[in-house]
Amino acid sequence: MKKGYIWTAVTVFYVLFIFSHSMKPADISSEDSGRVLELIQKAFKSWEINAPWVTEHVIRKAAHFSEYALLGVLLWNCLPACGFDPQVRWLIHVTAGCVVPLLDETIQLFVPGRSGQVGDIWIDCFGVAFGTLLGAAGLMVRKRAMDGRIKRRAK
């Protein structure tokens, strides 16, 4: 059960991290995205790749997707560690995967220069779903590796 507390704490702090980004005023958030855009453009140039499609808008949407994919992975690991039944675990997982993005975008309605976007809620929810799939795939890989070790020991 101690493992459940650790996963829960990490997940809660990560949600607070997400919300803290939503509380940044538009100019500061745009500066952050601009710095990331600059790094990515430099990387592409160093690889001699022309990528005019990499814009601040693309960076922002990719950030939404990836930060929520990580939330999906955290939820995948957190809820079983807390000892919930599978049906309850899925209910909490899906609810959190929808409510956190909704709250995140709602927070932005009250921040200067920011706005809550329905499209971002969808991107976030798909990010959670993708992270959940990554968590499930990781579990399958671990189980197969364990099964292989058990079979080798049995021989």
Description:
- The structure is a single chain.
- This protein is an all-alpha fold and 155 residues long.
- The protein is 83% helix and 0% strand.
- The chain has helices at 2-22, 26-46, 56-81, 86-108, 118-154.
- The longest helix has 37 residues, at 118-154.
- The radius of gyration is 19 Å and the shape is globular.
- The two termini are 34 Å apart.
- The model has no long low-confidence stretch (mean pLDDT 90).
Topology (elements, then pairings):
Layout: H1 2-22, H2 26-46, H3 56-81, H4 86-108, H5 118-154
Helix pairs in contact: 1-3, 1-4, 3-4, 3-5, 4-5
Q: Whole-number radius of gyration? A: 19 Å
Strand proportion, as a percent range, falls in: under 5%
**Helical percentage:** over 70%
Biggest sheet statistics: none
- First and last CA, distance: 34 Å
- Shape descriptor reads globular
Total helical segments: 5
Runs in which pLDDT lies below 50 for 5 or more consecutive residues are none
Mean pLDDT: 90
Salient structural properties:
155 residues; mainly alpha
Give a short overview.
With 155 residues, the protein is an all-alpha fold. Helix content is 83%, strand content 0%.
